[in-house]
């Protein structure tokens, strides 16, 4: 039982990165549900694979595998979402545009590397017993890197740039009036969100292998975590993602593996209907939907 | 020639799906659970056909009705949600229903699918030829599209347009907003379920892969490419997508290339439309 919860916790931490990335974009732009992150999540392990095929050292491979997908994410903002923003487009238009980008990136992966599933490590992982737990080496990698990234994500909002990000989410017009380059700030946010998704993609690929379609599950959970956590709350998204990870493992263990994909969505329905403002809303005592 | 009839049948089903989606888009509601409604219709009709041996007309009607009834389960709690909350709820519904198709092995056959569905049977006659099926479907789809067109132009359709343009103002004018939305969702699901019934009874085999989120995205992209809120747009969108598929097939790439290339083209088209031509090929209003 503890083992199940632990596995769920590790999975959830990994998904929390996508959740925070998703929620970062959603909170600051207020209208972009950036589903393309799913394709970016799938892209990063392929880049690492390609780099190792070309004989680059692992470190350079990892840097490339995070940087290139992040650039793709930034390109989506520059080519699609920024022009839409300038036209005051609705969330729906942004959603459809983002779906289009998702299709493009995902299918390019399929064209370039085929649709077969891959794994990084052949054979079983090394297992380290730790009291009652059995911890695999890839889980240790996941925990360490996720905690490092999440700590950074918690510390950054305290710095000046974090203030700007929060200002962007509350009033972008005013922010540009006082002389901030909103365009650049937005590109940076998309870049960071892309990096978070790419890192998460790498970690997940390390543990479970990868294919062009793994990203969809990840982004759906990111999306659910954003809503369940309360829109606009990064910590909420992270907590929700970890909770969903544990919930998924518990479902697989106690009920049936077939229902694993369904549980996050039951959580989503429950949240949307009962607590439209999510965990954040419950904490702040605002359970009614905000009028927009 | 048989091949041509098959393409026509595929086109008709896609056009009906797009037209039903357009009804909803008329009310400013975007949803990504259309494939689920399509699937409910398909499975109900297929089960009537195989397990109960019911004829074409009754199976089709039951499929359409079941899909509509299923949509009410969602529509009643969801009608007060707006914008992206609504999109997300429909996403949840899509995934949940797909999971059901995949796992209720005793009912839907799960990943093994349902086979042995007979061709459309009216009275004692079974229509075997593709030409016959194509003609029958052409009649049904044309009638449905005519009906959707009537609905769009009726007071009901105008109420939906009013809701899309300004929900609060519509409410102020005395339009029962939540009720109209529920009705639109119901009708949309009925037509999608009908399309599913038609699909099942010509395919002879069903499995859940036809009803994934990707299918829903495809239907949305048909509407976006064709243009929202117009029947001509739905037809044009369906035609464009069918043509792309056939042209790629004609070019004879290996099958590992054709599939991704097809979806890649759709993606590019969607992005181009959203950015440069928000009213699509012949839409009445733009995605704003």
How does the SSE layout of this entry go?
The complex is a heterodimer of chains A (292) and B (288).
Chain A (H helix, E strand, L loop, with lengths): L1 H28 L7 H17 L4 H29 L4 H23 L13 E4 L2 E4 H19 L4 H11 L1 H6 L4 H27 L5 H16 L4 H21 L8 H12 L3 H7 L8
Antiparallel strand pairs in A: 1-2
Chain B lengths: L1 H24 L8 H19 L3 H23 L4 H21 L1 H4 L5 E2 L5 E2 L2 E2 L3 H24 L1 H11 L1 H6 L4 H27 L1 E2 L6 H14 L4 H20 L4 H22 L12
Antiparallel strand pairs in B: 1-4, 2-3
Quick structural summary:
The complex is a heterodimer of chains A (292) and B (288). By secondary structure, chain A is an all-alpha fold. Chain A has helices at residues 2-29, 37-53, 58-86, 91-113, 137-155, 160-170, 172-177, 182-208, 214-229, 234-254, 263-274, 278-284, and strands spanning 127-130, 133-136.
Tell me what the structure shows:
The complex is a heterodimer of chains A (292) and B (288). The mean pLDDT of chain A is 79. Chain A is mostly helical and 292 residues long. In chain A, helix 2 packs across helix 8 (182-208), helix 5 packs antiparallel against helix 8 and helix 9 runs parallel beside helix 11 (263-274). Helix content of chain A is 74%, strand content 3%. The N and C termini of chain A lie far apart (43 Å). In chain A, strand 1 (127-130) and strand 2 (133-136) form a beta hairpin. Chain A is globular and about 55 Å long. In chain A, strands 1-2 form a two-stranded antiparallel sheet. Chain A contains twelve helices and two strands. The model of chain B has no long low-confidence stretch (mean pLDDT 83). Chain B is mainly α and 288 residues long. In chain B, the strands form two sheets. A two-stranded antiparallel sheet of chain B has the order 1-4. Chain B has a two-stranded antiparallel ribbon with strand order 2-3. Chain B contains twelve helices and four strands, in the order H-H-H-H-H-E-E-E-H-H-H-H-E-H-H-H. Chain B is globular, with a radius of gyration of 18 Å. In chain B, helix 1 packs across helix 10 (213-226), helix 2 (34-52) runs parallel beside helix 4 and helix 6 packs across helix 7 (155-165). At the A-B interface, helix 3, helix 4, helix 9 and helix 11 of A face helix 4, helix 10 and helix 12 of B.
């Amino acid at each position: 039982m503890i083992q199940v919860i632990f596995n769920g916790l590790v999975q959830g931490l990994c998904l929390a990165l996508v959740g925070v990335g998703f929620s970062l974009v959603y909170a600051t732009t207020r209208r972009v549900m950036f589903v393309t992150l799913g394709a970016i999540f799938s892209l990063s392990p392929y880049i690492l694979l390609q780099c190792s095929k070309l004989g680059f050292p692992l470190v350079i491979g990892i840097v490339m595998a995070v940087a290139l997908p992040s650039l793709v994410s930034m390109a989506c903002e520059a080519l699609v979402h920024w022009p839409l923003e300038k036209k005051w487009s609705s969330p729906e238009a942004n959603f459809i545009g983002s779906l289009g980008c998702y299709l493009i990136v995902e299918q390019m992966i399929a064209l370039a590397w085929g649709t077969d599933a891959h794994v990084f490590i052949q054979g079983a992982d090394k297992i380290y017993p730790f009291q009652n737990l059995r911890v695999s080496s890839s889980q240790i990698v996941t925990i360490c890197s996720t905690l490092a990234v999440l700590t950074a994500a918690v510390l950054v909002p305290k710095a000046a740039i974090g203030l700007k990000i929060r200002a962007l989410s509350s009033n972008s017009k005013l922010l540009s009036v006082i002389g901030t380059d909103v365009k650049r700030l937005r590109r940076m946010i998309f870049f960071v969100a892309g990096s978070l998704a790419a890192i998460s993609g790498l970690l997940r690929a390390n543990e479970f292998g990868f294919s062009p379609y793994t990203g969809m599950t990840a982004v759906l959970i990111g999306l659910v975590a954003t809503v369940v956590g309360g829109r606009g709350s990064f910590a909420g998204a992270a907590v929700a993602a970890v909770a969903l990870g544990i919930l998924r493992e518990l479902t697989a263990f106690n009920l049936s593996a077939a229902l694993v994909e369904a549980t996050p969505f039951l959580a989503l329905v429950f949240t949307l209907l009962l607590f439209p403002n999510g965990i954040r809303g419950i904490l702040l005592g605002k359970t009614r939907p905000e009028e927009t | 020639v048989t091949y041509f009839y098959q393409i026509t049948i595929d086109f008709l089903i896609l056009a009906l799906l797009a037209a039903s989606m357009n009804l909803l888009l008329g009310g400013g509601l975007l949803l990504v659970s259309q494939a689920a409604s399509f699937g409910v219709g398909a499975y109900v009709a297929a089960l009537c056909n195989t397990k109960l041996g019911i004829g074409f007309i009754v199976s089709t009607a039951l499929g359409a009705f079941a899909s509509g009834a299923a949509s009410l389960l969602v529509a009643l709690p969801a009608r007060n949600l707006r914008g992206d909350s609504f999109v997300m709820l429909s996403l949840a519904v899509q995934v949940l229903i797909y999971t059901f198709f995949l796992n209720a092995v005793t009912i839907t056959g799960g990943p093994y699918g349902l086979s042995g569905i007979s061709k459309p049977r009216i009275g004692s006659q079974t229509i075997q030829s593709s030409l016959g099926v194509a003609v029958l479907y052409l009649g049904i789809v044309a009638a449905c599209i005519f009906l959707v067109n009537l609905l769009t132009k009726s007071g009901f359709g105008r109420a939906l347009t009013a809701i899309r343009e300004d929900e609060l103002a519509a409410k102020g004018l005395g339009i029962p907003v939540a009720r109209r939305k529920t009705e639109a969702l119901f009708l949309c699901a009925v037509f999608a379920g009908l399309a599913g019934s038609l699909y099942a009874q010509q395919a002879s085999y069903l499995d859940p892969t036809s009803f994934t989120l990707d299918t829903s995205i495809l239907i949305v992209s048909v509407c976006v490419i064709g243009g929202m809120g117009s029947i001509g747009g739905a037809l044009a969108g369906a035609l464009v997508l069918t043509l792309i598929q056939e042209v790629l097939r004609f070019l004879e790439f290996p099958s590992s290339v054709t599939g991704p290339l097809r979806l890649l083209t759709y993606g590019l088209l969607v992005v181009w439309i959203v950015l440069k031509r928000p009213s699509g090929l012949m839409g009445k209003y733009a995605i704003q």
